[in-house]
Amino acid sequence: MGEKYDALSRNFLLFTIGSFGQKVLSFLLVPLYTSLLTSEQYGLIDLIATGTTLLIPVFTANIAEAVMRFTLQDQENQEFLSIGAGVMARGTGMLLAILLLLSTVPGIPESYLLWTFLLYLSGSVNGLYQNYVRAVGQIRVYVLSSLIQTAVMLLSNVVFLVWLGRGVDGYFLSQVLGTFAGIGFLEGTLGVARRICWKVSISGDTARVLLRYSVPTIFTALAWWINSSLDHYFVTALCGIAANGIYAVAYKIPNILGVFQGIFQQAWTLSAITEFDSQDSDGFFGKTYTYYQCTMLLICCAMILGNRVLCRMLFAKEFFQAWRYVPVLLAASFFSALSGYLGSIFAAAKDTKTCAYSTVASAVVNVVLNTLWIPRYGILGAAGATLAAYFASWGIRVVVSRKYIRMKCSFAKDLCGYCLLLVKVGAALKENYVIQIFAAAGLFGLYLRQYRQAAGQLLTWLRQKRKG
Questions:
Q1: For site-directed labelling of 80, which of 86, 254, 265, 452 has its Cα 20 to 30 A away?
Q2: How far apart are CA 221 and CA 62, in angstroms?
């Protein structure tokens, strides 16, 4: 399969080991959360958690992305890490000052502000550490830290939610302790903090280069947050916090698809940057895109077909009604995955501005449709707006990416497949299993050749590895 595929496969396997435990844990704990927490409590947890994901790129200038991108080119240069730490420290100080001011406002619970800051602090530091560790090639250390983070989070959930019954506070404490445990392992193993020189200027030439790269990604992150999280606030405002709890739980099954997406994206970003070829002369980018989207389609179709069974197994009490929104969110997750793949091409070309423009445009679509559809269709309108936004993001990036690379793949054929996927989603909403099965069969037949090729190449690669 070649050295490029070997590197991608090796990194994918390692990231799978590191990420799978944590991702699967968040999925397996859903029955625990839905049985011990009310829909109002889960809705509150979701609002605080999604709000924190917005604060991290804003107050850190998303500098961790730049640290990884430039450290990949020069692993011996620790100035990038030092600049990243300096930018992050300044942003953290600003956020802390704002939260302290908010704590003086009557009606804002101090515990919410405390958890917001701790989630921000642990998430931002963990992001910087993990991006740096990946960039310097310490993938196995990264994997071990993720496994430790998962184990501590699991144990903490059992202690604080099951034994002590701490509810919302127990949930957040588990998240924070798990993340800091992973950070502690990275620090103890590699001494990341000892590599930081706090005297390095964050206003020098090198810092300006990093910030020119990272600042546009803030808008990408903001727009991505709008696509994935703003609808939660729309639902809360228009339908109530309990409805948001239902909607947040509905995301848990699409997050299974997100497990594969997230793991692959980590491995693919490294390959896209190091193996970038504007002509795609050996077809590496085109073939990888085709195999990736074929796999995602297969998983997505299977999950839509088994949606109600999964929901019955995972969702307790009033949370079961979330099954109605899962098929639409699964399709949204699929187009999010394809859009993320294309985003790595812009990162490789160091064009974060174009990536930001495409995401902002899709965010505008999301906001407009949320405003129009949620009052009319409720939670389903929010899910539909998310699907439309990610589809728009994918479409824009497909067109614009041709400026940088000519991928060898058939987008016309892919569009036929995506239409069949949308037919399957519509049939799932109507609970029409006959049409679902026919749509799935059509998809499988459309990509049968690719499935055979992928299986054959995988078997050949495994035989070569066994002989080696």
A1: 265
A2: 8
Tokens 């069969």 belong to residue: 441
The structure tokens listed for 425 are 């989603």
Q: Look up residue 2 and give its DSSP letter.
A: -
Q: In the block, which residue shows the tokens 């917005």?
A: 54
Cα–Cα distance measured from residue 366 to residue 364, given in angstroms and rounded to the nearest whole number: 5
Q: What CA–CA distance (Å, rounded) separates 170 from 216?
A: 36
Give the Cα separation of 254 and 252 in Å (integer).
6
Interhelix angle 241-250/231-239, rounded to 10 degrees, is: 140
Report the interhelical angle of 205-225 vs 79-102 (nearest 10°): 50
Is the pTM higher than 0.85? Answer: no
Element (H, E) at 405: none
Residue 184 has which token pair? 């502690």
Q: Are 59 and 121 in contact (CB under 8 A)?
A: no
DSSP alpha helix (H) spans, 306-378: 307-314, 326-348, 352-377
Cα distance between residue 277 and residue 269, in whole Å: 14
**pLDDT tens string 411-432:** 778 888 888 999 999 998 888 8
Average pLDDT over residues 432-444: 86
Distances (CA, A) of 110 to 101, 117, 175, 203: 11, 11, 18, 35
